[in-house]
Each structure stands twice: as C-alpha cells, then as structure tokens.
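Might I ask for a little of your time on a matter of protein folding? The record follows directly beneath this note:
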Amino acid sequence: MTRISVHFKVVELLIFTFFSQFCSENKAVMQVKWIDIHTHRKWNRPDLLFVRQAWSISLAKPGYFLSNGIHPWQAEKAFFDVNWDSLLQNPQVLFVGESGLDRLKPNLDAQMNAFRWMIDLATRHQKPLLIHNVRMHQEIQRELKSVDCPIILHGFSANQQQLDAWLKFPRVYFSLGMRELQRGLLPIPLNRLFFETDTARNDVQQAYHHFCHHTQIPLEELQKQVIQNFNEITANRLFISYQNH
C-alpha cells in the first residue's frame, strides 16, 4: 500500500469516526420522500432512505444504513466470532436482523437458537428487530411476548386472524413489498406500516403508488406517515423529515 493510499484511508476513517460520534450525540437530520425499510440492493436516489441487509460494515457510511443479523437460512453457520455488540453500536446499523423462523427450511432448532440470540441483542441495544417469518406466526409470537423493542415483520403475509393476533403487539410494524400487496390488502393501520423492496428490482415507489391507488389515501399523507413511523421505531436517533421539493 502506498503512502498516499494510507493517508487516504486515515482521512476516510477520521471522517467516518466524526460522523458516527455526531450521530450518537445529535439528531442527524435527513429530508426524504421515500423509505425502503428492507432491501438487499443499493439505491441511488437523494430523496430515498433505504436500509440494506448487508454484512460488510465498510458499507456503513453517512446516509447509508444497514441491518445485520443471522438469517434463519444461515442459522447453522458459525457466527460466534462476530463481535455483535461492537457491530450494533455503530449508529449506521439501524436494525437487528433479518432473523426469525422459516417452516420451509430444515433445522428449526438451530433457527430458534439464532433467533433467541438476535432477540437478546435487539433488546439490549434497543434497536428494532427485523423478522423473517414463513408460516411460523404462533411460534414467533411466543418468543416475542416479553420483548420491549420495535419489531418489523418484513414481507408480511397473513390472513385476517393472524393479523389480528399481531396487532395485539403494540410495537409491531408491518412491511409490505409488491409481492405482498398484489395478494390483496389487509387492514393494517397506517401508523404501523412500512414498504420494502427486499430482493426485487422494482423501486419502493411502486409499492407506495399501488397502496395509494387501492386505498385512495393521498400519496403525501402516506409518505409523511411512514416517515413518522420510522422516527418512532428509531426513537428519533436519526430524525427524518419530509422533503417538500
């Protein structure tokens, strides 16, 4: 490594350290129109805040936010060498997860162990827990009965009875992508709602517009409510406001 590249790395580290300290001590202010609460992609829009599922902490830069955790599909892998407490102290890592239970995958015992581990981390760090749930509503609800942190049910798919059971959890939020929206709309309260792209190539605006078209809710009203929901689950650590222009 050349002397110039070393100098550049040092400067980059100093900038990142300053920004991290600023975020932890102050309410960072961003103005956006759209929030993609869960994505596996990188988006380049100045009016969009997205939270990317990613392992590389090097991606955690100003304006670039991550969720980190053990996915149930990876529950049997060894993650004991990961310094989770250090990882989650980074202000750019907003959520723990995605974690949860998947009935279509083997080794539910390993999934449950990993899930309980992630619940403990989210509780201790008071960061929202992003849930992956495939046909395991009751099992996950039992684990979350005494959890005191915000919970986001990513890719939420359920019937009315299952939705009613989840609505009894006051800190549970529901995230919908186009796949879930096209199956039909459930009466999810607006103050518990998010939108996502997950692995899809379409941007999150499509989900917003689809929801507005079928509910007759004005787009700006929906955008402002989702921003308010975001500020609530992050306890205003990263204060977001609506971009008027």
